[in-house]
Automatic annotation (TrEMBL):
Gene3D superfamilies recorded: Endonuclease Chain A (3.30.870.10), Polyphosphate kinase middle domain (3.30.1840.10), Polyphosphate kinase N-terminal domain (1.20.58.310)
Active site: H428
Chain's gene name: ppk1
Protein name: Polyphosphate kinase
Family note: Belongs to the polyphosphate kinase 1 (PPK1) family.
GO CC annotation terms, alphabetical: polyphosphate kinase complex
Lineage start: Bacteria, Pseudomonadati, Bacteroidota, Flavobacteriia, Flavobacteriales
Source organism of the structure: Rasiella rasia
Reactions performed catalytically: [phosphate](n) + ATP = [phosphate](n+1) + ADP
Role of this protein: Catalyzes the reversible transfer of the terminal phosphate of ATP to form a long-chain polyphosphate (polyP).
Length: 678
């Protein structure tokens, strides 16, 4: 691994694997309730699937670039892929151990038995046969191929298959149906609950077929394919239509991984590699079962609580009690923090605007829309009520393209103006703008957030949202929308930082201000919370700040290419990462200390794509109360001694020392807001 990162920059993809290792640590943590550990196994599996479909695909595309240019883009791709495979195999081994040696025995202690087809009782065998006949038989295809077949067998992206060597000359490939739940629960017997994979019902019943030998061994396989759409000639034609027509390409893209049962004989692996057109570098050794993301739906047939106690969203102390959200925003900026606080005020804001006769205009961006949404329904209502509604929909939001296109059509059908993606740039900002006429003239309102307009993720992701009627901020916000409407080329903003125009420059100046303070002997500090830190130029600025004596605290959930703790480079930089029940998603940027600190929130990580290739919006927090709240919340996270890991130069993911009275920041944050509602 030493050649793939150096003392200045840790390779982004290897750092991402270290993030997924932190997820795996949560599955291994016996202090977590049993079903919480199972959930983290599912998250780990889902994350890894996307990594192979996207990042590994990107690295392989780089292999097609001419060598002189390739050297400027990335370390030799073959070496990167080799190291990725090595690290993934190690994590898969740990994953398998956690599941088979810890989770399965722990389930048994609660009288939940996860059994394979060899463990079926006589009664369970008959039940399995009935279920197979009624629910599975018509949904499978048993395809037989000669061992000598080459490049003629196609398996779908992310679909599970059983394979078996039928003879020295023939093998079979059988799909595992996705239309039925992955798990089947047998009737309770002697106080014990029995659950099986439908994979095992298939294995048992297929062996009973006269066309199959009963001693045949079935092995699971799953192929991940290139998920990038690679839209050609983006500068011409309708990009939304092109994306719609290209979505099926994901099902037929080049294989980037074939996950196989590690018990599969190497000779049979060779047969499959030839038949499926995959290579040694594509093969990842897994367990008997794949697609552990299906464990999000693992049944709990007992009445026992084997999950964490719920932390239901709390009512906002101001907006939950008011008659008019718009009126409260006029009085004072309002700050929301999901999922600790309810998403309801934002829905109410849009519903109120949709039905207020004096509201004339609503503009907003949508990056990932919820499938069913009161918020989206409010947009439809506003359009039906004759208001000027402009919705910018990012149809390049990976894996949400189809749902975003669906809602775009609904909005258009009801009279809204829908603007779809621009070529070569993503609209990642989460912004809303409202205009209202009054006797005193035009009133403007804005909402700027770190997370999506999505009710579902607002219960799972930690995010901030600012509602404001501040004249300069709302005026800036309208300028951003004028750019999206292609009415102006550059938003000349006074308060907002907007990528790709001013965000990089603005943050660089804020870092430089702290460097200047430190060099004059004054206290200087930088505190940043982000999903990922990868941009080399911004990392260089942080190194300069560290060398100048600026105290830097970083909360980085995912990728961290910055290498901390190196003398003469980053000894003043401390990095931690919190992985817990909620996904840490908010971006917070604090420059300075105490009441004089400059505090910002926004949608931009410090990645090159966010600073230079996306439309991002970052807003200052001007209200003194809200600045204080954000600083206190960040301090809580920095004091975490239960779920925080230290990101050191090797990214070993060692936990912060817990001490006698551990601080679990997400629970402490919930209690912080709970006190505010009393």
């Amino acid at each position: 691994m030493a050649k793939l990162y150096n003392s200045k920059y840790y390779h982004r993809d290897l750092s991402w694997l270290r993030f997924n290792h932190r997820v795996l640590q949560e599955a291994a943590d016996t202090s977590n309730p049993l079903y919480e550990r199972i959930k983290f196994l599912a998250i780990f599996s889902s994350n890894l699937d996307e990594f192979f479909k996207v990042r590994v695909s990107d690295i392989r595309q780089i292999k097609t670039i001419e060598k002189p240019l390739r050297k400027k883009l990335i370390t030799k791709p073959n070496k990167v892929l080799k190291e990725i495979k090595k690290q993934v195999n190690l994590q898969q081994e740990q994953f398998g151990h956690i599941f088979t040696s810890e989770i399965v025995p722990e389930l048994k202690k609660h009288n939940i038995h996860l059994i394979g087809q060899k463990d079926f009782s006589a009664t369970q065998k008959e039940i399995a046969k009935t279920f197979y006949t009624e629910h599975l038989k018509d949904k499978i295809e048993v395809n037989r191929y000669p061992n000598s077949v080459e490049n003629k067998v196609f398996v779908k992206n992310e679909v599970l298959y059983l394979t078996a060597q039928l003879s020295d000359n023939e093998f079979a490939v059988i799909n595992i149906p996705t239309e039925v739940p992955r798990f089947f629960t047998f009737p309770k017997h002697n106080g014990k609950h029995y659950i099986t994979f439908i994979d095992d019902i298939l294995k048992y019943c297929l062996r009973q077929s006269p066309k199959m030998e009963q001693d045949i061994t079935f092995y699971s396989i799953k192929t991940s394919r290139d998920a990038e759409l690679y839209i050609e000639d983006e500068l011409s034609g309708n990009l939304a239509d092109k994306i719609k027509n290209s979505l099926d390409n994901r099902n037929t893209g080049q294989a980037t991984r074939m996950l196989v049962d590690q018990r599969m004989p190497s000779q049979f692996q060779d047969v499959l590699k030839r038949a499926l057109d995959v290579y040694n570098t594509d093969i990842i050794q897994g367990g008997v079962y794949h697609n552990f993301k299906d464990f999000f739906g693992f049944p709990n047939p007992t009445n026992k609580s084997l999950s964490l106690d719920a932390l239901p969203p709390l009512p906002h102390p101001v907006l939950s009690k008011c008659n008019s959200v718009l009126a409260e925003i006029e009085k004072k900026d309002q700050l929301l923090h999901y999922p600790y606080q309810s998403f309801e005020p934002l829905i109410r804001l849009l519903e109120e605007a949709a039905n207020d006769a004096q509201v004339t205009t609503i503009k907003m961006t949508i990056y990932r829309a919820a499938k069913e949404s009161r918020l989206n329904d409010a947009i439809v209502t506003a359009a039906k009520n004759g208001k000027k509604v402009i919705v910018f929909i990012e149809v390049k939001a990976r894996f949400d393209e189809q749902n975003n296109l669906k809602w775009g059509q609904i909005f258009e059908d009801h009279g809204a103006q829908v603007i779809y993606s621009f070529p070569d740039i993503k609209i990642h900002s989460k912004i809303l703008y409202i205009e209202k006429s009054s006797d005193k003239g035009l009133k403007r309102y804005g909402y700027i957030a770190t997370g999506n307009f999505n009710e579902k993720t607002a219960k799972l992701y930690t995010d901030f949202g600012l509602m404001t009627a501040h004249k300069k901020i709302t005026k800036d916000l309208n300028k951003v929308f004028l750019v999206l409407e292609q009415k102006v080329l550059v938003p000349k903003t006074k308060r907002l930082l907007v990528s790709p125009y001013t965000t990089r420059i603005g943050f660089s100046e804020l870092v430089q201000n702290e460097i200047t303070l430190a060099r004059t002997g004054k206290p200087a500090s930088i505190t940043l919370k982000m999903n990922s830190l990868e941009d080399e130029d911004m990392i260089k600025y942080l190194y300069r700040a560290s060398n100048a004596g600026v105290k830097i605290n970083l909360l980085i959930r995912g990728i961290c290419s910055l290498v901390p703790g190196i003398k003469g480079q980053s000894e003043n930089i401390h990095v931690t990462s919190v992985i817990d029940r909620f996904l840490e998603h908010g971006r917070v940027y604090i420059f300075g200390q105490d009441d004089d600190a400059s505090v910002y929130i926004g949608s931009a990580d410090w990645m090159t794509r966010n600073l230079s290739h996306r439309i991002e919006v970052v807003t200052p927090i001007l209200d003194a109360d809200h600045k204080k709240t954000i600083r206190e919340l960040i301090d809580i996270q920095l004091s975490d001694t239960v779920k925080a890991r230290i990101i050191d130069a090797q990214q070993k993911n060692e936990y912060v020392a817990r001490g006698a009275n551990g601080v679990q920041s997400q629970v402490a944050t919930y209690n912080y807001f709970k006190k505010a509602t009393v």
